[in-house]
Backbone:
C-alpha cells in the first residue's frame, strides 16, 4: 500500500492546517477572539458548524488517498470505509431500499420458464428469504441503528460536558440537538447500508448514497480551494487600488470592470475547454485517471478563482480608501514608514474581517456554481463524482417513465443542507464581525 | 405651560450590564425660559432629552419617573398619542444638521410634512407657512431655498432649516441637543442668537443641552449641571456663574483655559467618570473630588439649597455657601511672555496646495480647489504658533503640507534651514523624526489592531531611533511616565483607554522620535473640558522641558489665548492676520478676525 497525494488533497490539508494556525493565533488576541466568540454565541452558527463539521470529516476522509499493492486504482480512506457500498454494484436503476431492479428483464424461473419481470438485485436485500419480510427487516435494522446512535450520542454528550463547562457562553444544547438529529439519521442508514441500497442505485448500478458521500469532497474542494486563488488576487488588487489611488487604481478598476462585463459562464467554459485540450494532449503527465480528474478539478478551482475575485476587490478597495484617510495611517506616513509596511501592518489587519465574511459567503456560491457548470458540462471531469454530475445524469432520469427521482433528490438534499448551513454560518460570521451590529446594543451613553 | 420631570431613570442595556444613563433627575422647565443642561460626555444629558421625547435607542428603556407636560404624564401615554405630542408640543433639534434632514426630500417638503401631520392645513397655506418659517429663521431667498435639497445648503443653513421644521407648528417646548457643536463659531453665534430671539418672540420653553459653559453663560436663564446621570447643581445663571456650589462645577470653570492662567497649570479633574452599572450609595464624585472626606464615601449627598434657588448635591454645602470663584484673578505674571531670540525652526513662504478637479474618462484637469493659497509663517524653537480658522479654511491642509504629508503645489518650506519641498520621499525619511503630528480624533489616530507598544515602536523602528528593541522599550517606559500613563499600558490595546489617555498615547508616539516640531491638529477638540485641561497642561510642560515648537491648529480661541505665543488667522486658504497673541486677540485689525473674536461666547 503506497500513499498517493493528489494536488487537491495536499491543498485541502494545507487549508485545514492554516485554519488551525489561525485559530491558535486568534486565541491569544482578544480583538480577534471576541468576534468569533460572538459568532459561536449564536445558535444558528453552532448548528451550522456541527453540520459543516460532519461534511468536513467526510470530505477529509475522502482526501487521504492510497494505492493498494498490485493495483493501479487510487482509493481513499472513505472508499475503504464504504467498500461495502462501492463494491456492490447492480446492473442498473433500483429504488431506495428496493430488492428488485427498476427495469424489466427476461429472467429464467427455477422451473425453466422465461418471464419478463423485475429481477432480484444482486446485493440489495439478498439476505431476505422472502421479500415480504422486507418491511419488518428494515424496521428491525433501523431500530438497531437508532439504538446504536442513542448510545453514541450519550457518549458524545458526556465527553463534551467538560468542554461545555469551560465555554459556558456557547449554546451547547443546540449543538447536542443537532448531533442527535444527525445521529438519528446516520445510525439507521449505517445499519441498513450493508444490506440495502438506502438511496437506490443509478443507471450503471452504483449506490447513490456512496455517490452523494463522494460528491462532498468535490464540493468542499471547489468551495475552499477557489479562495486560494481568489483571495490573493482580490486582496492584493483591491487594497492596492484603494491605497495607491491614481493610475494604479484606474488600471485595476478598468481590469475588473472589463472582467465583470464578460458573461462568467462563457469565460469559464472557454478556459475549461482549453485546459481540456491541454490535458488530452499530455497523457504522460498523469500516471493514473484519478490524477487526471484531480488536475481538472484543480484547474476548475483556479479558473473560478480567476473570474470571481472582482467582488472582493471592489469591497476592499472601498474600505481601503476609507482607511487610508484615517489618522493612524497618516501618522505612519509622518514616520516615513514604507508603503509595504503600512499595507501589512495597518491596512490588512483592519480589512481582515471583510475578507473572512466574503470567504464564508462565497463558499456556498461556489458550491452552487460547480453544480451549474457540471450540469452544463464544463465543470469537473466526468469521472469525478460531484453533485453537478449527479444532477446532470438526472436530466435523463426525470424524462424517463416511470421517473427515477432518487439521484436528483439525494444530490439536492445533500447540497441543500451544505449550502444552507454555510449560509447560516456566513450570516452569523457577518453579524459577529460587523462592528455596527452589537449584541445587546452596546451604545455609548 | 410647564414641563416637570420627576425622578427620571433611564437604563441602557450593554454587554457590561444595565447602565444607569439617567439616574433619578428632577427639574422643571417653565414657559419662556431657557434651561441649560450642562455636562461632559457620558453625563446622561442627551439621554435625558431622548427620554423626554421617548425616542430612546433600542437598548434603552425608561425605568421609572414622570414627565408631566401641563399635568399629562408623557411616559404614560400610548405611542400613538405620544406621536401627536412630538413635534406638536415638544420639538427637538439635533446636533448634526447634515444627518437630521432627509437628503432625498426638499427642505420645504420636510417642513410642510410637519405642518400637515399636526394641523389640518391644506397644501398651499402649508407652503406659505413653511416659507414664512424659513424667513423667520433668517434664511435669505426663502422661496428658492424651499425647493432645494439639503446637499445644496451649508451646515448653518441646514441647522436653520432644522429649526424651522422644529418650530413649524409652534411647539411649547423646544429641546436643542448640542445644536451648534457641529458648526463654526461665527455660524454658532448666529444660530444661538436665532434661538434666543425665537424663544423670546414665541414664549417657548427651551431646553438647551450643551457642554460649553460659554454658550450657557450667553443663553441660559437657569442651569443644571449633570454628572454621571445625576443633576449635581441647579441654579439661576448669574448665581451659578458667580459662585458654583458643587466641587465638580467649580472644577469645570477652573479647567477652562484663559489668558490669565498662561504658564500656570490648569485645574484638572483626576480619574474618570465611575462606571454607571452599579448602584451608588455614596457620592459619585467622591473619587475625583479635592474636598472629599469620610462621609462622602458612605453616604450619597442630598440636593441641598445653600442659597435660595441654588441647589447643590454636596455634603459640604451643609456648612454654607461656597465663596465666589476667583474668576479673573488679575493678569498674573504668567501673562507676560519673555521674548526669546530663539532660532527659527520652521519657515514657510507662499505655500500653496491646489487640488485638481478631474473630469471625464481621461481625467482631464478642469480646475483647482485652492485649499491653501499662499501661506507664509515662521516658528521659533520652543514656541507655539496657533493657526486659527474655521472649517474649510485650509488650516489642516497647510499643516500637512508643511510636514510634506501632502505635496505642496508651490512655495517653500524650510525646516531647520533645509528646504523640504525639493526632497524625495527617501531623502525626507531621516528628517521625519524631527517633525511630528498629533491628530484630532483620538479614536481614529491609533490602529485598533496593534498593542500600544507596537504603535509606539513603529516610528522608532522606521526612523532608527535606538539600537535595539530592548533599548527602545526602555525609552518607551520613560515616555509613558512623561505623558502620565500607567507603566503597564504597553501591553494593552487602544480600546482599553479613554479618549484623553489615547491622546496621551498619540503624543507619546510623536515624542518617541525626539521631534523639534509637533503639528498639533486640533488635539483637544474631541475632548471634554477637564480632559482638554490635562492635555494642554501636558503639552505646555513638554514644551518647557524639551523645547519643542508647536504649530497648533485649532478653532478654539480660548485654547489659543492660553497656550500660544503667536497666532495666524486663516481664512479661505490665506493668512489674513498674523502676530503676537495679545496683539491679535486684543486688537484685531482684519475684519474677519474681528468677526471671529466677537462670535466666541465668553463667560465673563
Residues:
Amino acid at each position: 500500500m503506497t500513499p498517493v497525494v493528489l494536488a487537491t488533497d495536499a491543498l485541502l490539508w494545507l487549508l485545514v492546517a492554516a485554519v488551525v494556525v489561525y485559530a491558535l493565533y486568534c486565541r491569544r488576541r482578544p480583538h480577534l477572539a471576541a468576534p468569533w466568540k460572538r459568532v459561536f454565541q449564536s445558535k444558528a452558527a453552532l448548528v451550522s458548524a456541527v453540520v459543516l463539521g460532519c461534511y468536513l470529516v467526510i470530505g477529509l476522509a475522502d482526501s487521504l488517498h492510497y494505492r493498494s499493492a498490485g493495483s493501479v486504482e487510487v482509493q481513499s480512506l472513505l472508499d475503504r470505509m464504504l467498500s461495502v457500498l462501492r463494491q456492490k454494484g447492480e446492473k442498473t436503476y433500483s429504488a431506495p431500499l428496493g430488492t428488485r431492479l427498476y427495469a424489466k428483464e427476461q429472467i429464467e424461473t427455477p422451473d425453466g420458464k422465461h418471464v419478463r419481470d423485475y429481477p432480484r438485485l444482486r446485493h440489495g436485500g439478498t439476505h431476505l428469504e422472502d421479500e415480504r419480510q422486507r418491511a419488518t427487516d428494515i424496521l428491525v435494522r433501523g431500530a438497531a441503528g437508532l439504538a446504536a446512535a442513542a448510545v453514541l450520542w450519550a457518549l458524545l454528550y458526556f465527553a463534551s460536558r467538560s468542554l461545555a463547562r469551560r465555554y459556558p457562553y456557547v449554546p451547547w444544547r443546540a449543538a447536542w440537538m443537532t448531533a442527535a438529529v444527525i445521529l438519528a439519521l446516520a445510525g439507521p442508514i449505517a445499519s441498513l447500508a450493508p444490506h440495502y441500497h438506502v438511496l437506490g442505485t443509478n443507471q450503471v448500478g452504483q449506490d447513490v448514497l456512496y455517490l452523494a458521500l463522494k460528491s462532498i469532497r468535490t464540493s468542499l474542494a471547489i468551495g475552499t480551494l477557489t479562495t486560494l486563488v481568489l483571495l490573493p488576487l482580490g486582496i492584493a488588487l483591491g487594497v492596492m487600488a484603494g491605497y495607491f489611488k491614481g493610475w494604479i487604481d484606474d488600471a485595476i478598476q478598468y481590469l475588473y470592470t472589463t472582467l465583470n462585463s464578460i458573461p462568467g459562464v462563457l469565460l469559464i467554459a472557454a478556459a475549461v475547454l482549453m485546459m481540456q485540450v491541454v490535458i488530452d494532449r499530455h497523457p504522460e503527465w498523469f500516471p493514473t485517471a484519478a490524477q487526471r480528474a484531480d488536475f481538472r478539478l484543480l484547474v476548475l478551482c483556479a479558473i473560478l478563482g480567476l473570474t470571481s475575485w472582482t467582488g472582493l476587490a471592489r469591497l476592499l478597495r472601498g474600505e481601503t480608501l476609507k482607511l487610508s484617510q484615517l489618522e493612524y495611517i497618516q501618522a505612519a506616513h509622518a514616520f516615513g514608514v514604507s508603503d509595504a509596511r503600512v499595507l501589512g501592518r495597518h491596512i490588512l489587519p483592519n480589512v481582515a474581517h471583510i475578507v473572512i465574511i466574503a470567504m464564508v459567503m462565497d463558499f456556498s456560491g461556489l458550491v452552487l456554481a460547480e453544480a451549474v457548470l457540471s450540469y452544463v458540462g464544463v465543470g469537473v471531469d466526468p469521472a469525478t463524482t460531484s453533485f453537478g454530475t449527479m444532477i446532470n445524469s438526472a436530466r435523463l432520469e426525470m424524462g424517463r417513465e416511470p421517473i427515477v427521482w432518487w439521484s436528483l433528490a439525494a444530490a439536492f438534499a445533500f447540497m441543500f443542507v451544505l449550502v444552507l448551513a454555510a449560509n447560516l454560518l456566513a450570516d452569523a460570521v457577518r453579524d459577529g464581525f460587523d462592528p455596527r451590529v452589537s449584541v445587546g446594543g452596546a451604545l455609548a451613553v | 405651560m410647564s414641563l416637570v420631570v420627576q425622578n427620571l431613570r433611564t437604563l441602557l442595556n450593554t454587554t457590561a450590564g444595565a447602565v444607569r444613563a439617567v439616574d433619578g433627575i428632577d427639574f422643571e422647565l417653565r414657559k419662556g425660559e431657557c434651561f441649560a443642561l450642562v455636562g461632559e460626555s457620558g453625563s446622561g444629558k442627551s439621554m435625558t432629552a431622548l427620554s423626554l421625547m421617548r425616542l430612546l435607542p433600542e437598548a434603552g428603556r425608561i425605568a421609572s419617573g414622570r414627565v408631566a407636560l401641563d399635568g399629562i404624564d408623557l411616559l404614560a401615554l400610548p405611542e400613538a398619542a405620544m406621536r401627536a405630542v412630538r413635534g406638536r408640543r415638544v420639538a427637538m433639534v439635533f446636533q448634526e444638521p447634515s444627518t437630521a434632514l432627509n437628503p432625498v426630500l426638499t427642505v420645504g417638503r420636510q417642513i410642510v410634512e410637519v405642518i400637515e401631520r399636526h394641523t389640518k392645513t391644506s397644501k398651499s397655506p402649508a407652503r406659505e407657512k413653511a416659507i414664512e418659517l424659513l424667513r423667520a429663521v433668517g434664511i435669505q431667498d426663502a422661496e428658492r431655498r424651499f425647493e432645494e435639497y439639503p446637499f445644496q445648503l451649508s451646515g448653518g443653513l441646514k441647522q436653520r432649516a432644522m429649526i424651522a421644521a422644529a418650530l413649524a407648528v409652534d411647539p411649547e417646548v423646544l429641546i436643542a441637543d448640542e445644536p451648534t457643536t457641529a458648526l463654526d463659531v461665527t455660524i454658532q453665534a448666529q444660530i444661538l442668537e436665532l434661538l434666543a430671539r425665537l424663544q423670546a418672540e414665541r414664549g417657548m420653553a427651551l431646553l438647551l443641552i450643551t457642554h460649553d459653559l460659554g454658550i450657557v453663560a450667553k443663553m441660559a436663564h437657569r442651569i443644571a449641571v449633570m454628572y454621571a446621570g445625576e443633576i449635581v447643581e441647579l441654579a439661576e445663571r448669574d448665581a451659578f456663574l458667580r459662585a458654583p456650589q458643587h466641587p465638580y462645577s467649580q472644577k469645570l470653570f477652573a479647567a477652562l483655559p484663559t489668558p490669565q492662567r498662561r504658564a500656570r497649570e490648569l485645574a484638572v479633574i483626576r480619574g474618570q467618570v465611575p462606571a454607571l452599572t452599579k448602584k451608588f450609595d455614596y457620592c459619585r464624585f467622591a473619587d475625583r473630588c479635592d474636598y472629599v472626606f469620610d462621609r462622602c464615601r458612605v453616604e450619597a449627598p442630598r440636593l441641598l439649597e445653600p442659597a435660595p434657588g441654588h441647589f447643590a448635591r454636596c455634603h459640604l454645602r451643609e456648612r454654607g455657601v461656597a465663596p465666589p470663584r476667583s474668576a479673573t484673578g488679575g493678569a498674573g505674571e504668567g501673562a507676560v511672555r519673555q521674548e526669546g531670540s530663539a532660532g527659527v525652526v520652521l519657515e514657510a513662504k507662499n505655500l500653496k496646495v491646489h487640488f485638481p478637479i478631474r473630469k471625464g474618462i481621461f481625467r482631464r484637469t478642469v480646475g483647482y480647489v485652492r485649499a491653501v493659497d499662499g501661506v507664509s509663517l515662521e516658528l521659533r524653537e520652543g514656541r507655539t504658533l496657533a493657526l486659527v480658522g474655521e472649517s474649510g479654511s485650509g488650516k489642516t491642509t497647510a499643516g500637512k503640507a508643511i510636514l510634506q504629508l501632502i505635496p505642496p503645489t508651490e512655495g517653500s518650506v524650510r525646516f531647520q534651514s533645509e528646504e523640504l519641498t525639493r526632497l524625495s520621499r527617501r531623502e525626507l525619511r531621516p528628517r521625519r523624526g524631527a517633525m511630528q503630528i498629533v491628530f484630532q480624533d483620538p479614536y481614529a489616530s491609533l490602529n485598533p489592531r496593534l498593542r500600544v507598544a507596537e504603535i509606539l515602536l513603529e516610528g522608532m523602528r522606521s526612523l532608527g531611533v535606538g539600537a535595539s528593541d530592548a533599548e527602545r522599550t526602555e525609552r518607551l517606559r520613560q515616555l509613558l511616565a512623561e505623558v502620565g500613563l500607567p507603566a503597564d499600558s504597553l501591553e494593552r490595546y487602544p480600546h482599553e483607554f479613554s479618549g484623553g489617555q489615547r491622546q496621551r498615547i498619540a503624543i507619546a508616539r510623536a515624542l518617541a522620535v525626539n521631534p523639534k516640531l509637533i503639528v498639533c491638529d486640533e488635539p483637544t477638540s474631541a475632548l471634554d473640558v477637564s480632559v482638554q485641561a490635562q492635555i494642554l497642561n501636558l503639552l505646555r510642560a513638554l514644551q518647557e522641558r524639551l523645547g519643542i515648537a508647536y504649530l497648533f491648529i485649532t478653532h478654539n480661541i480660548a485654547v489659543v489665548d492660553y497656550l500660544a505665543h503667536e497666532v495666524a488667522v486663516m481664512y479661505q486658504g490665506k493668512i489674513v492676520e498674523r502676530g503676537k497673541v495679545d496683539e491679535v486677540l486684543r486688537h484685531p485689525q482684519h475684519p474677519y478676525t474681528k468677526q471671529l473674536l466677537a462670535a466666541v461666547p465668553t463667560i465673563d
